[in-house]
């Protein structure tokens, strides 16, 4: 017999009852596990409203949470990548970068590029940088009545933001934050996607001809295969081992919801990314032209805060570091964070390691 006791009574249970209890808990855990894999979590709950649209793109303004006289004067525009949904910046209440910045007194705006349809297969970075983003900026400045603004670009959003800041240095961009920015592809052995896309057998033209817009499933599989054991095995083992830890489960569920919500990339933009950036490194070489305008990094004069993830396997640090020597910014800082491509902003420690540093840097330059 197994003996358990509390302060008021003594309860005896048999080994059979213990086994039954364990099986019951395991069955319950398995049910929760399956539900987490198939049901979406509630995400992107910070209040916001749409203030502008163009084609599939939308510009959101988040509802301020502090009194007007406590807000920073300069508004903040968030620009995420074109092949993922941007709500990773607003995953869940209590663990949302957007919520954090709104509560710190920033007037926060988010550009959602939307989901490209077959009719958008010809969209290129020329369009994102010289058509979409300038229109967003005009709307932002008109809406806020501010001639200056800050911009945060993450991943390919950082690439787009860098090109815009270089081509339109007089449009009012005061502060630029880059997160895991894929800019310099000179090191062909750097890891990440670099070695794959430079393989002689890889032909982006054939991919685009076959699909039009490149399926999100293909891009997602490529990213996961950079760390196959971690993504396809360890991720689910860790979930099972922590299935009774509510906080960890909620965090995993929110992130998994974002990971599963994959979207395609416009075909022309994909071809341009592989050929002109990864293969030919035109931005760093100074030979990149968008609609006939040469992108000169030396013209980028905004205050620059360049955030690098030390364990980034998507954008290795060497793809972000070199830009510091090429930009014309007088006020510039390189900040390294322990963690991976997504974890530095959406991982469990982001609110302690990354967000406060960004707030401190930006806050000192936003009033």
What's the helix count? 15
* CATH fold category name: Rossmann fold
Largest sheet at a glance? 8 strands, mixed
Q: What amount of the residues lies in strands?
A: 15-25%
CATH first level: which class? Alpha Beta
SSE ordering:
EEHEEEHEHEHEHHHHHHHEEEHEHHH
State the fourth-level CATH superfamily.
Alpha/Beta hydrolase fold, catalytic domain
- How many domains is the backbone divided into? 1
- What's the Cα radius of gyration? 23 Å
* Beta strand count: 12
Outline, from the CA principal axes? globular
Structure class: alpha/beta
Task: Please describe what this structure looks like.
The chain has 367 residues and is an alpha/beta fold. It has a single domain (48-363), classed as Alpha/Beta hydrolase fold, catalytic domain (Rossmann fold, 3-Layer(aba) Sandwich), CATH 3.40.50.1820. 41% of the residues lie in helices and 16% in strands. The protein has helices at residues 15-38, 97-103, 125-144, 156-167, 194-197, 204-211, 216-224, 228-241, 246-260, 267-279, 282-285, 318-321, 343-346, 350-353, 355-363; strands at 2-5, 10-13, 48-54, 57-62, 76-79, 108-112, 149-154, 173-179, 289-290, 293-294, 303-309, 332-337. The strands form three sheets. Strands 3-4-6-5-7-8-11-12 form an eight-stranded mixed sheet, with helices on both faces. A two-stranded antiparallel ribbon has the order 1-2. Helix 3 (125-144) crosses helix 4 (156-167) and helix 6 runs antiparallel to helix 10. The protein is globular, with a radius of gyration of 23 Å. Residues 102-322 form the AB hydrolase-1 domain. It comes from Bythopirellula polymerisocia. GO terms for molecular function: acyltransferase activity. Residues 3-101 form the Poly-beta-hydroxybutyrate polymerase N-terminal domain.
């Amino acid at each position: 017999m197994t003996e358990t006791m509390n302060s008021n009574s003594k309860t005896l249970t048999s080994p059979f009852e213990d086994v039954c209890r364990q099986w019951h808990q395991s069955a319950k855990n398995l049910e929760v596990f399956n539900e987490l894999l198939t049901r979406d979590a509630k995400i992107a709950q910070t209040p916001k409203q749409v203030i502008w649209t163009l084609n599939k793109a939308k510009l959101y303004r988040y509802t301020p949470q502090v009194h007007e006289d406590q807000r920073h004067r300069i508004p903040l525009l968030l620009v995420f990548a074109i092949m993922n949904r941007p709500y990773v910046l607003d995953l869940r209440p209590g663990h949302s970068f957007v919520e954090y910045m709104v509560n710190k007194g920033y007037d926060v705006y988010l550009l959602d590029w939307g989901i490209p349809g077959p009719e958008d297969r010809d969209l290129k970075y020329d369009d994102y940088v010289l058509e979409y983003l300038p229109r967003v900026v005009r709307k932002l400045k008109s809406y806020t009545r501010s001639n200056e603004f800050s911009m945060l670009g993450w991943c390919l959003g950082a690439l787009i933001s860098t090109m815009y800041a270089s081509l339109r240095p007089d449009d009012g961009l005061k502060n630029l934050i880059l997160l895991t920015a894929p800019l310099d592809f000179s090191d062909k052995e750097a890891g990440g996607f670099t070695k794959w896309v430079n393989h002689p057998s890889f032909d982006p033209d054939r991919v685009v001809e076959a699909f039009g817009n490149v399926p999100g499933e293909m891009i997602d599989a490529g990213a996961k295969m950079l760390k196959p054991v971690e993504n396809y095995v360890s991720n689910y083992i860790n979930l099972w081992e922590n299935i009774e830890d509510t906080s960890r489960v909620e965090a995993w569920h929110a992130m998994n919801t974002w990971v599963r919500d994959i979207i395609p990339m416009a075909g022309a933009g994909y071809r341009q990314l592989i050929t002109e950036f990864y293969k030919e490194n035109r931005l760093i070489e100074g030979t990149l032209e968008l609609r006939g305008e040469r992108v000169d990094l030396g013209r980028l004069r905004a205050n620059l805060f360049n955030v690098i993830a030390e364990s980034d396997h998507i954008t290795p640090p060497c793809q972000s570091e070199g830009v510091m020597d090429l930009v014309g910014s007088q006020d510039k800082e390189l900040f390294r964070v322990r963690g991976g491509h997504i974890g530095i902003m959406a991982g469990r420690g982001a609110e302690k390691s990354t967000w406060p540093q960004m707030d401190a840097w930006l806050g000192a330059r936003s009033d």
